[in-house]
Amino acid sequence: MANRALGAPQLTGPQPVPKEAVAVGAQAQSDLLIKAGDSRLADRMFFLAVLACGLSVLALVGLIIYELVTKSSLSWHAFGWRFFFRGEWDPVNDQFGALPFVYGTIVSSILALLISVPLAIGVAVYLTEMSPRWLRGTLAFTTELLAAIPSVIYGLWAIFVLVPLLRQYLQPWLAHYLGWTGLFEGPPYGVGMLAAGIILAIMVVPIISSITREVMTAVPQQQREAVLALGATRWEMIRTGVLRNARAGIAGAVILGLGRALGETMAVTMVIGNRAEIAKSLFAPGYTMASVIANEFSEATGDLYLSALVEVGLALFVVTIIVNILAQFLVWTVTRGTPARSHA
Amino acid sequence: MPENLSSDFAAAPISLWRRSVNVLVTGASVAAVLLVLLPLGAIFGYLLYKGIGSINWAFLTQTPKPVGEPGGGMANAIAGSAYILLIASTLGVPLGIGAGIYLSEYGRGTRFGNLIRFTADVLNGVPSIIVGIVAYGLVVLTQGHFSALAGGVALAIMMVPTITRTSEEMLLLVPQAVREAAYGLGVSRWRTTLSITLRTATSGVITGVMLAFARVAGETAPLLFTAFGNQYWNWKLSQPTAALSLQIFSYAISPFDEWHRQAWAGALILIVLIVASVGAVRLAASRGMLKGAN
Question: To the nearest whole number, what is the mean pLDDT of chain B?
Fold first, then answer.
């Protein structure tokens, strides 16, 4: 009954039972059935109401696209594609180029993935394949708690704990041993690209590990048993039986983490240093697309300035949407055969 | 036969190399878990250590004092957050549950249903700062100034997709036979959906609402240029309003020790609020009070 296709002309639920069919004694019941025939209008109204709610989801995304496109048109007409390849960001002279922000977003996100992917997969492997049963629930909850911490609290912690630690210990160490690469040069301020990458890594670990866990759980148990029966060690079983089968989904999990890292705003804004420059060293301050919007949007004077910021937002929107759709497709290729997560 | 089998295995021992790799990987996995738990512990430890000492009666009852004057608190920000979240829930919860009902009761397997489902997932992935830009364009520009309503609209937009998808999943868990039993008794379709299906799935749907609530409760980016923040009390929909997360942000990046102290205290209150709501849901789920809820 509930499977009736959309747009079917009659959306009333039950068909009224003919009156003759009702037993003579069941007067009350027959009353009810007759009344049910009158509910056609109410059913119609209810359908239209929930349809409107469903449509509002479409409308919201449409509205986001409309707002971003119309409000950025000024900047688009002024700079065109060059906007994304210009390094100059000069509100005073109305010259805008988004390259430093694109660069900062990409570098901080990649840095975050480099740190978080091995950790997240390690956590997922431990939780699904190695952890004793009694510990599994608690550990899973604890790691997912990391995802519940608001971005601004990560930022607060990063400013007062992570940044001083970097300045005093990690950065001098890196400069001493890896300074020759050019990636770890310059004065160790603490704040900068490295701090942003590390705090982002901490924030995306729970996302990557929980999706990886989901796809690893979706791998059939027989795969594990078959590989073990061939005499494999536990790690060989995990590698050939589980990880290999789940690799598309794990790639999806990583890309989903990337999507989160690209759009993350507050924590990054608080530690990246907010300077629109492109520097090779990870110690140098940078700027991301999300943080330039956060910092300058409410103070942007001038239509072109505001429009340029919205265009940065439009680019960020398009990129995160593509990344998220790709990720969901990859996760779906692994988990499609298994019931939804809520059944697990 | 079994004896032969076991002796075959004994004859082919696993090489030292393979065994050491196995041990190494196990160790690496445990190390990964510990490394991930480390920042978690550090964050909560610091929040407690720095926050508890700064929470006092004045913090909970007073508005911020100007720079240089000690004391003052975040009472207006706590109330402002609650106010904005109330607006967001009023707008977002009915919309989300309605869309969830549409997807599970009318949109199952239909192309249009799939489109909405997909769009909800897309909306879920939109960076929160973008939602802020859109709420700015929709509400702030229309009203002419920053307002509590704009903040509420921004957070509502973020709540809708989460509530839609969890409501749908929870409603789908209700067996078809339950609906058919109601239809068989002559109950109309809308009545069945509201009083039988939705009622059966209530606890699951509430879980979804709580998760969406916890997700937006600490959001800062979409409030930066919508609710904007305020040093004083405000209960008007059309006026800028303080929020706990905004206050934490502006105090954290300020150069004053007193404000840093208050930022920690505000953060502790915020995290307690969020963890309590997530934890309550989790506890209820693990006790089996919520059938099928995750």
Answer: 89
